[in-house]
Design goal:
This protein has two domains: 160 residues, Photosynthetic Reaction Center, subunit M, domain 1; 106 residues, Photosynthetic Reaction Center, subunit M, domain 1. It is globular. 62% of the residues lie in helices and 1% in strands. The protein has nine helices and two strands. By secondary structure, the protein is mostly helical. The protein has a two-stranded antiparallel sheet.
């Protein structure tokens, strides 16, 4: 254990301890905090990977580029399908959601131990929402698990292509454009953050000098000195904006808009 690790390697601050007064899983395996949600993450991940392996084996040659684990056929609606007719997709989806949510709750427990804010699990939860909207909420709104996102490299690409044709040019979805814009802006801000911090860091420098160097970097390159705190806040809100636009992009195609070409064929009276 490093000298500073004792500050946060302390017991308590877990959901199970609050619930029953003790948490037998409140321990570390090396530098990995376990906890009850660490265990549920591991179990769900193992089951999901095992189902993926079975699905790959059942498709023959094991070519990962061609393997597709498709959603259930329309005839099964919102019911459980036979294992190799979409049931495997349902099990993998359940395991993925359990693993993702468990990991976020594990992050919450770590935040409680460190007496810090919940910014990290909140951000991760927005990413989870994108998956849940795609694989659960949208199919529920459309009344069939067959609307779920197929798994696999070719399955992914085929699903995107088919969805684009089905709703008459998916790329005319305005929320798709807003989401892509957010992804690129977030990537740019993160790159600028990394270049600013790493470009000014020195183990022997005065912290005040480092802060001034970061401020100078931003002022010199974009004309405005946003500072170390500001870049984190900007990245936080950009990521939230991007994920909200992504969710709206998926939710609008099908449940509310059937034809994106027709969607744009409207007239504004005062423009005539």
């Amino acid at each position: 254990m490093l000298s500073f690790e004792g500050v946060y390697r302390k017991r308590g601050g877990t959901f199970l301890a609050d619930l029953i007064g003790d948490d037998p899983l409140d321990f570390w395996a090396g530098r990995f905090y376990v906890g009850v949600f660490g265990v549920t993450t591991i179990v769900a991940t193992i089951i999901g990977i095992a189902v993926i392996a079975l699905s790959i084996a059942a498709q023959g040659d094991g070519d990962l580029l061609r393997v597709t684990i498709g959603a259930p056929l329309r005839q099964y609606g919102l019911h459980f399908a036979p294992f190799y007719q979409g049931g495997n997709w349902e099990v993998i989806t359940i395991c993925a959601i359990v693993a993702f949510v468990s990991w976020a709750l594990r992050e919450v427990e770590i935040c409680r131990k460190l007496d810090m804010g919940y910014h990290v699990p909140i951000m991760f939860s927005f990413a989870i929402s994108a998956y849940v909207v795609l694989e659960v909420i949208r199919p529920l709104l459309l009344g069939c698990w067959c609307e779920g996102f197929d798994l696999g490299f070719t399955g992914h690409l085929t699903w995107v292509s088919n969805t684009g044709f089905k709703y008459m040019n998916f790329y005319l979805n305005p929320f798709h454009a807003y989401g892509v814009l957010g992804f690129f802006l977030t990537a740019m801000v993160l790159a600028m953050h990394g270049s600013a911090i790493l470009g000014t860091y020195s183990t022997n420098a005065d912290p005040n000098v480092e802060t001034a160097n970061v401020d100078n970097f931003w002022r010199d390159y974009i004309g405005y000195s946003i500072g170390e705190l500001g870049i984190h806040v900007l990245g936080f809100w950009l990521a939230i904006y991007t994920l909200i636009m992504s969710d709206l992009c998926i939710l609008t195609s099908g449940p509310w808009v059937k034809d994106w070409v027709e969607f744009w064929h409207f007239s504004i009276p005062w423009f005539h």
